[in-house]
Amino acid sequence: MFDIPSMQQLIAWLGWGDGIGAIAGDSAVLTVLTILAPVIIGLLLHGVERLQLKVIGAFSHDLARFFVIYLTFPGIVIHEMSHLFFAVITGAEVRDVCFFKDEDGRLGHVTTRSRGPWFVVALQYTLIAIAPIIVGLTLGCFLLWYIFAEPHSLWVNVGLWYLVISIIDHSTMSESDLEGYFRGVWIFIVPLFLFFFILGLNA
User: Fold this and answer.
1) What is the pLDDT of residues 128-170, one digit of tens each?
2) What is the domain partition of the chain in residue ranges?
3) pTM of the model
4) Element containing residue 169 per DSSP (H, E)
5) E strand map for the chain
6) Exposure of 127 by Cβ count < 10 A (0-12 exposed, 13-18 middle, 19+ buried)?
7) Which of 27, 108, 134, 191 has the lowest CB atom count within 10 Å?
8) Rounded to an integer, what distance in angstroms lies between the CA atom of residue 134 and that of residue 101?
9) By three-state DSSP, how is residue 37 classified?
10) Given CA atoms 35, 41, 47, 53 in this order, what sign does their dihedral have?
């Protein structure tokens, strides 16, 4: 079973000592890693999806396009619904929701407009951008747990794995998601730093 390392273990791994300056340095590193984590995860998932398409595309370009747009459509729906859900709960204005762009078969989109005080706007940018990663990985982990928790029939397993692949394949961040994320995530820098610093003092 995977255990989350304690702050004391993290400080020991970084090896900068236990003084105030060392704790501040550790906290800065952990803050940067925390902020970059969704981006790294999103890029890794995007790389996995591109690899799948490259392998399938070696046999047929049309089949690869069919796979990413239509065969894994549950992932597209969950991707866009996650954007929509976080837009609604953070108070952003939802202007358009589209699961497929009929004119050229491209993937869907959710168009929003941020509103409210500056800190709410920053929160909206950040959470809406990383929504597919949060929701997709949560659902994917839950499905994997369910798959391995108890035996299932062949067709149930096929269906569950199909959902896992569809969801994970679309738990990525688009260029516009990345842009929105970095427009808002700065609001978390100081709170994250203070959080890690206080944990370090108490470790």
Assistant:
1) 999 999 999 999 999 999 999 988 899 999 999 999 988 988 8
2) 17-202
3) 0.81
4) helix 154-169
5) 93-101, 106-113
6) buried
7) 191
8) 24
9) helix
10) negative
